[in-house]
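Hi D.,

Good news: the full-assembly prediction came through. Inputs first.
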Amino acid sequence: MLGPSGSGKSTLLAALAGVLGGEEEGEERGALLVDGAPPTQGRGRIGLVLQDPDAQQVLAKVGDDVAFGLENLGVPPAEIWPRVRGALDAVGLEAPLGRGSAELSGGQKQRLALAGVLAMRPGLLLLDEPTANLDPGGVAEVRAAVERVVRDSGATLIVVEHRVAVWRDLVTRAIVLGADGRLLADGDTERVLDERARELADAGVWLPGRQPLAPRGERPGGAELLAADGLAVGRPGGPVVARRLELAVSSGEALVIAGPNGVGKSTAALTLGGLLPPKAGAVRASHELARGAASAPIRWSSRELLTRIGSVFQNPEHQLLAATVRAELAVGPRALGLPGVEVAARVDELLARLGLDKLADANPFTLSGGQKRRLSVATALATRPRVLLLDEPTFGQDANTWDELVQLLRELLDEGDAVVAVSHDDELAAALGAREWRLAPAQEALT
Amino acid sequence: MTTLLPAFRAGPLARVNAVTKLGCALLIALTLLATVDWVSAAVAAVLEAAALAPTRLPWQRVLPRLAPLGVAAVLAWFTTTLYGASSGRVWWQWGVIEISDGSVSLAVATALRIVAIGVPAVVLFLTIDPTELADGLAQLVRLPARFVIGALAALRLVGLFMDDWRALTLARRARGVADTGRARRYAGLVFALLVLAIRRGTKLATAMEARGFGAPGPRSWARPATVGWADAAAVAIGVAIAALAVLMAVVTGSWHWVVG
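Then the structure:
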């Protein structure tokens, strides 16, 4: 199922799963039947996997979590555990049953969620952008698990996805919804992709063979802005997760922080951004960046950070402060004490640039995942920091907003600012002409 | 955070059902709360030590967690000695401070009571797994499954909330609003955490509903909660501690009802 964000794909999936809520929560017209009955009566026949890997584990241990659905269906205890093991085998998750579900990686958590619905032996499997928040390794894991499950169980699969390439070989039929929620096309996958290519491209669907922005050549940077010397990073009160980091970021330079899950990329970004104190070593801002402030960013005031280093977090919801999108963008410029006219000018410009102008008066929490992420990038841009640190900025973006975001970052680079991004997105690195800074697991870094 | 450290999963206490442990701790606590004498508390504390000594708990890990109890007991002893209800002979007086026979014995009784009620409670929470407790409460005590399982699932979110809180704090610094207005910022953080908590809760509820939670029809249990000889022994020990504490207090004439 394809379509622009806001076309109602997720709502339709929720309706198919029978979890849309009752009459008091909205209007319903027409009839939706699964196996000839309303979906709410088909519990266990319909399995739903959602986008957010953290939102779907119910119990603390892997085995208990998979067993949860079976208990709810009243499956006899003697049958439960063989079915749990079978489901975990089917998704290729080899974790012991007693393993903590919180310790799993994103891809493993999504496979756990899949095992949880699979154990119920559903005839209909609904996946709502199951790979949107995963790194490429996780995407491949989940895709392989789904393929095996569908082949072995013979269940019907409906998947909502922006990135067509992931599922193209597996699905046999494509349904396209328009921005107004109406049906645009329905038929054989290849034929729909071919005939509706233009509409799909306009809707931001990642079509196979899409030409991304021309790569920007890696360019030598200008004056040094930010450097790390023998830096060790970790959460306060927690262990050191990465050590002996050496780095220099120059004006006009793009850098991508890469490495496997759990290697400390986000922690390193927060430390470089003057938000976490180094565990050892130092983060140094050059004179050009510090402009009279101390050399260590962690010693800057919150206001001093604004025009020097901007940080965009992995979860945009953590950074939202205001009741409307417009007010959200004005928070930083106001904290700088800029005159009202200037604040309004900056806000309007960013609203237009990131396609958020129609949402100016909306509550930021009501935006879609991709819109929230763009908003959090825009809030950092509003105070024009010389160094911009971003944690997975392209998660959840469709092809159009991806282009817009990358274009904006390229302009920053051309103006002589520096962009540092934690990202698994190879296209992003190429489009920014970014240098890769790869973090290795702690044991390897020691040698 | 809802799984136990392996060290706490070994030993005889691991064979006792979580509900039994909860029951024993409650029995002792309620008994000791009925009276305010020092004899019953001292007897209970000594017997608890004797009962817990052979359980092979990893004491290096347990003792630091018991330390706050010691601090609370000493503080209670000190303040009750100085300010407790006065009776009998007065030893020393200065302003509102009055040390008397009554305040001294009340202080000892209070401090011992904190230890005697606190130790089993702390050991209990170190050695039960929330999932096991929920299974037990639903299957053995017959509390409504919907309520117990809902609470258990919510407990898993607590760890995520702690991460949220840290991220929210850092995010405010990054947004330029962390320099002034500490009190107001704190209120804002609490509100933001509440919003995130509701959003996480809603998503979790959807995921649970999609997996048949709350469906009509009987629920089965993947982990049957059972009670056995270990539980019978634990109950016997718990009842013995409570009964001996009461008996000794009554025999020595120190029993003193809190109410009445």
